[in-house]
Every structure is written in C-alpha cells, then in structure tokens.
C-alpha cells in the first residue's frame, strides 16, 4: 500500500490512513464503529499529531504544544490547535470532564497519587476500576465506552505512573506512551523499543476507524485459490505479503493499517486451518483407541462449533473471510459454522448492513466456489454451549474451537467445558491473546475437567497483525493480537 500525496489539511496519521491506495475498494463497505479514546490524538476531531519521528527515540520529546494541548479541567485527553479557543470537548462529555476534575489542571489520578499507590500491575488495575465505579456513581449513569477508556488508558508515566499532566511528555514516534522524565524514558527504552512501532500501528488503525470505519471487502484482496492442497507454511505476514521476510523489521516498516485490520478477521478461519493441520500431524504419531485420523487434505464436509462466540466472531461473518477455507481446501464442498455464545446478537445483520444491501447477493460465494457447488452455512445460537447441545437441531461437530476463551475468568464456562470434552475423540481447540492468558485458561480447564493436551500452548503464526490495547500489561506490553497463542486438548476419560 503506497502512501498517497500529502494533503496539508490532514495530520500525519490521516495522510496515509483515509485512502486505500493499492486496493480495489469499489465494492467495499465501510461500517461505522464506536469511537475510541486515543491519548495521543485530538479528542474532538480525531486528528493525530502533525508529524511523527521516523525513528524510535530512546528519550522522550515533548508533544507539539501548538497542536495538542490538554483540556483545562480534566486533563485526561487532548484537543488540537483548531479547537483550543473553546478548550472544551463535545457537549455530551462536559459533565464527565468536570466530574473528573479535582481542580483546574488536575484530575482524579493526580489526587490518588498513582506514583506511590500503585506499585504493581494489580494495584494499578484495581485503582482504575475504582475510579470508573466512582465516576458512574457521581454521574448517576453508566459510562460511555469513550469515557471508560479515558479512565482505563490513562496518560501516566509508563515507568512510575506519575499522573501530573504538566510534566508528562510522549514518545514522538508512537504518541501512545508517556514519561515524566528523561531518566524514566531511558529505563523503559529497551522494552518500549520492542513495542513502539506496534503502538504506532494500533494508533493508526484506531484513527482510521474513527475517520472512515471498518473495512468490509467483497473478496479479501491478497488471497489465492488453491487448485491443489498445499499445507500452510510461514506466517500470516507471508500469506498477505508474499514478499515479506517474516522479520520484525519488515513487520514494523511495511505493514499498513488496512492490511493489519483485515488480517485481524482473517486470523479466525486461518487459525482454525492451522490448528487442524497441526492436529493431523500430532495424531498421526499418537493415535489412541477410538481416535479418528484427521485428513485435512481430503475433507469434503466440515462442521465447526465456535464456542463462546461474540460480536468479534459475528463481524467476521460479514467480512466473508470464512470463504477462504474453501480456497485452501480444494475438496471441501460443505462448511457449516455454528456460533454459540450468550453474547451473540442473532440479528447482527441489522447493525452491519443497511436496507439497501441485498444480503443474499452479498453472501454469495465467489465464482470459483460456485462452480464447484460449495455450500457455506451459518448458525447463530445465543446461549451457553451445554444448553445448545440439548437442542433438537444439534449436529455433531468435526471440531470445536473457542477463540479467546477466558475460561479462568468466567465460572459460566464450567458446565460447557464438560459438554465440550464429553466426546473424548473430538479435539477442542483454544486460542488466547497472550501467553499469560493461555496458561491461566489451560490451568482452569484442567481443574474443571479431565483432559489430555494434544498440542501444548504455542505461538500461532497466523495471529491477527492488528495490535489492540488492553488495560493490563501482559507479556511485556499493553497490546494484544487476536489469536496470538493456540493449543488443542481432548477429553481424557468418559467419566
């Protein structure tokens, strides 16, 4: 994706983000999404800083005060020079802004003295939760997503959590991490240098979504149709950019937000394929009585149960990424996907499509798939998995997968886990955003049910390349990637 000509009216981030040069997007749909809080961008017009440094500096450089200034009252966010005459956020945020101020120029985090009261990540997470709860009580209502994020992704020193906005400066490359002094920037430099480009990409993706929305292509632009079965090789980066050398430097220098955002949805079907191929190899040398050898290359019919599904998986349906399974498996003719989860919205099409969209026409498979008479069907069940298995329309799956299953965090998983592992010959695949979450979930699964680990926790080379922010730092960063880790288990006994 080449960079379009510079436009003086746009900030550095918008110059390359509002255009999809390099893609034929004439049939793409752009779905408006909820606005996110961006600590390094203008809260009102969503513009980023006017420039970014081409290299990641080890020392902080003050933000351009002529472009981004802090709101006088809450000092939790920024506004650009075009709006500083008013120095107020939009009307609906004014009460929130006042509620968060303890006095002009200081906010609640300054009052709490986060520098000395949050010595570890758990204490810091708990304090932010307390502030969110207090804000809800003070305002007498639930917080909007933007407001909650302002109290979650707080502008504090990355090293010591100093909250005084008058001494904080931001990294001039990613505009996402802040420091109270040169000394603390140097202390954190080794860790930040590893993640700085990814923070920048995350910011670029968020600004793009705020300006234009989420891209939904008619066909994924960088995927080929296989006439003969070839196992997956390499990584997501190799798949979508064949010229890639799969190095960290290539990732940092050549990945554009459009490709990153599309990969974050494409990771769902490809992670499934990757897990199936790894499972076939694992079972080839370790078959037990009753196990069914998996022959991925010759599969003609496939039923997949996607457990714990939510809006994340629903939107992947609208992106048409699941069709790629047909493109990768030439013999496959029927694919039935069952999405099961209490957070599902069975009427998801109402907020992804307008009345002008012909849904039957839109969900048609490509010409090559139609020539082979391929059939792709979806089923959405808004309930827990153990309840779904009691329904008359229940159909035995070939494989079960749970994306980002926070088994350790929700007791509601316990009865469903027993049902998922009931058939000891059916593999169950799990993914996680971080290694820490994968380890905690696997430990919780082993506590609740008797299982055998077929494929241990490992990095998934086909994870989504779009970085997302998270409230708690894990694996050395406050960013995560969709399906970063993967593991496969099965029930160990029929007890």
TrEMBL record:
The keyword Nucleotidyltransferase does not apply. Residues 157-196 form the MYND-type domain. It comes from the Eukaryota. Keywords: Metal-binding, Zinc, Zinc-finger. It holds the Pfam family MSS51_C. GO terms for molecular function: zinc ion binding. PANTHER family: GH20023P. This is MYND-type domain-containing protein.
């Amino acid at each position: 994706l080449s960079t379009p000509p510079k436009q003086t009216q746009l900030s550095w981030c918008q110059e390359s983000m509002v255009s999809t040069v390099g893609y034929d997007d004439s049939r793409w749909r752009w779905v408006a999404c909820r606005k996110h809080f961006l600590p390094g961008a203008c809260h009102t017009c969503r513009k980023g800083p006017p420039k970014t440094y081409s290299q990641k500096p080890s020392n902080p450089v003050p933000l351009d005060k002529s472009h981004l200034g802090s709101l006088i009252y809450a000092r939790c966010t920024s506004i650009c020079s075009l709006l500083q005459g008013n120095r107020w956020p939009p009307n609906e945020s004014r009460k929130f802004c006042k509620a968060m101020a303890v006095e002009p120029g200081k906010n609640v985090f300054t009052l709490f003295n986060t520098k000395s009261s949050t010595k570890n990540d758990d204490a810091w997470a708990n304090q932010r939760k307390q502030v969110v709860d207090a804000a809800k009580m003070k305002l007498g209502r639930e917080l909007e997503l933007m407001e909650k994020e302002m109290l979650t992704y707080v502008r504090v020193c990355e090293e010591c959590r100093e909250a005084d906005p008058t001494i904080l400066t931001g990294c001039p490359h990613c505009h996402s991490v802040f420091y109270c002094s040169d000394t603390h920037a140097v202390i954190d430099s080794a860790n930040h240098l590893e993640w700085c480009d990814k923070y920048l990409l995350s910011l670029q993706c968020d600004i793009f979504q705020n300006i234009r929305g989420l891209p939904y292509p008619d066909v994924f632009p960088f995927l080929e149709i296989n006439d003969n079965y070839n196992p997956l090789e390499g990584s997501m980066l190799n798949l979508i950019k064949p010229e890639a050398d799969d190095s960290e430097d290539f990732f940092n220098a050549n990945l554009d937000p459009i490709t990153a955002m599309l990969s974050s949805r494409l990771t769902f079907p490809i992670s499934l394929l990757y897990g199936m191929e790894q499972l076939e190899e694992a079972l080839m040398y370790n078959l037990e009585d009753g196990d069914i050898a998996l022959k991925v290359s010759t599969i003609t019919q496939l039923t997949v149960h996607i457990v714990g599904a939510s809006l994340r998986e629903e939107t992947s349906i609208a992106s048409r990424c699941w069709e790629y399974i047909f493109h990768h498996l030439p013999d496959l003719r029927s694919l039935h996907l069952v999405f099961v989860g209490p957070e599902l919205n069975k009427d998801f099409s109402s907020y992804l499509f307008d009345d002008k969209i012909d849904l039957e026409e839109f969900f048609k498979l490509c010409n090559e798939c139609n020539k082979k008479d391929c059939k792709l069907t979806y089923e959405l069940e808004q309930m827990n998995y153990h309840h779904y298995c009691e329904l008359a329309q229940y159909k035995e799956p070939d494989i079960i997968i749970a994306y980002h299953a926070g088994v350790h965090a929700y007791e509601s998983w316990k009865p469903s886990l027993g049902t998922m592992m009931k058939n000891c010959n059916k593999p169950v695949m799990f993914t996680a955003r971080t290694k820490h979450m994968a380890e905690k979930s696997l430990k919780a699964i082993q506590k609740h049910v008797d299982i055998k680990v077929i494929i241990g926790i490992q990095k998934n080379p086909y994870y989504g390349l779009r970085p997302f922010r998270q409230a708690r730092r894990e694996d050395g960063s406050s960013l995560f990637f969709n399906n970063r880790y993967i593991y496969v288990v099965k029930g160990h006994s029929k007890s």
